[in-house]
Amino acid sequence: MKNSLLIFLLLSISMMGQDSNKKNTSNTETITLGGGCYWCIEAIFENLDGVKTVVSGFSGGTTVNPSYDEVCTGKTGHAEVVQITFDKSKTNLDEILKVFFTVHDPTTLNRQGADVGTQYRSVIFYRNDEQRKTATDIINDLNKNKVYNNPIVTKVEPLKKFYKAENYHQDYYEYNKNKPYCRLVIQPKLEKFEKVFKDRLKKK
To answer: Which domains does the chain have, with CATH numbers?
Structure first.
């Protein structure tokens, strides 16, 4: 991935939705994203200024109220996702997607690193046509500018149902920082996020 071009392009397109956000009377918005293991994505977005809540769960499949073990079989059709609710006076959908496309590889089909299976696919579940258009425009811009060496495989699909994962999956990194997966997989992604978006971190 051409990091400098990626950051430049995403900084530019991050301004696209600000005017439309001002026209919306609601001060919050929710989007559902899948980019590999939800522990990784959750830990990152919990540190972005303007994000109010991040909930790990499942979406995109046919099994009703699936368990984590069921989703891990790859037979439910669900992807591991995070449901992100953010304050539009502090951030916007463009920035949310900017972070999303920076911290995971959207060009690998049904995998992120060693996590392999349809449950780890890259996907954006939209709630309205504005979200669909924003996501599609960003993907088209990234492909057009050849930011990645390979085409983006991220799917953009309507959200049908979100199922919250078991409680022990919520805030997983926060409570399990010393476990090998957290140290070897999540921590490097979090460090990358903190470096690229150092001016957008929540104040602790």
So the answer is: 3-194 (3.30.1060.10)
